[in-house]
Amino acid sequence: MTFIDSSLESELSKGLKEVEALLAEHIKGEYPLVVETSRHLVEAGGKRFRPMLTLIASHFGSGQNRQVIEAAVVCELTHVATLYHDDVMDEAPLRRGVESANSRWGNTVAILTGDYLFSKASDLLADLGPEAVRLQAKTFERLVVGQIEETQGPKDGADPLAHYLRVVGEKTGSLIATSARFGAIFGGASKEVVETLTQFGEKVGVAFQLADDVIDIASDSSESGKTPGTDLKEGVPTLVTLQILRSNDPKDQALKAKLSKPIPDSEIAATIKELRGHPALASAREYLHTLANESKAMLKDLPDGPARKTLEGLCDAIVNRTA
Length: 323
Hints:
Elements: H1 6-26, H2 32-42, H3 49-58, H4 66-90, E1 94-95, E2 98-99, H5 101-105, H6 107-125, H7 130-152, H8 160-186, H9 191-218, H10 221-224, H11 230-234, H12 239-245, H13 253-259, H14 265-276, H15 279-298, H16 306-320
Antiparallel strand pairs: 1-2
């Protein structure tokens, strides 16, 4: 992320260090295996997108404080906990470039580690007051409903793409919206600013996930740090593949048949090459660009300044990831 204001950049860097320190401290416990399994993904890194958004949002009020840091840690703990559960459901062998917890310790330990991290998030929440607890409960409800909807798939006759976008809103947009809302609330922003940042977080969160969809097809691993075609191997629907699957063009029939199931390793490279030349990829980029611009337009209602400019830059960065 590019920062225009060096003072804000310094504050955010300081805040992220505090987040990392509290993350490391808060997952400690008396059972060595639990600590080891919890640290596994926390220490594997990640973008820290959610806590960063919490910190930025606080600067629409009086800025970072202990409650803002704790709220940022709550959001990251919640996110990491969902990764443990997702990897079990997806039977994923890797996460953040390391062996997944379910591969190393088995499904039971991975699920319980996710539960443990949820409990640690709740422990921090208790100090942030009933409003924060209620917001987290509503967010958790959306996360679970989104996962169930993804698992069940669209109802007969429903548009799979519309269903997918709704799932992305529940599974990704919800927690990112909460991350922004927490920062605004505990930073002391006005009610109007809190609501605007919440809506922004929801929309930019969806854009953030859809950018990953495009990257899975369009980017080389050297550019993105991710292995291209991961979603194809697992048969996971994405913005790109769903647009092809809804196509009525006879030329797409063979590709539709291929995309209707997981792609074997031997066919991944050829399939990626075919998708990179398909109009659906350009269409997905265009949709993402529109979503990012809509997110940026929401920021016009916020006070001008370094925090707003940073969020505007974030919208551009999401699009640029897929260039």
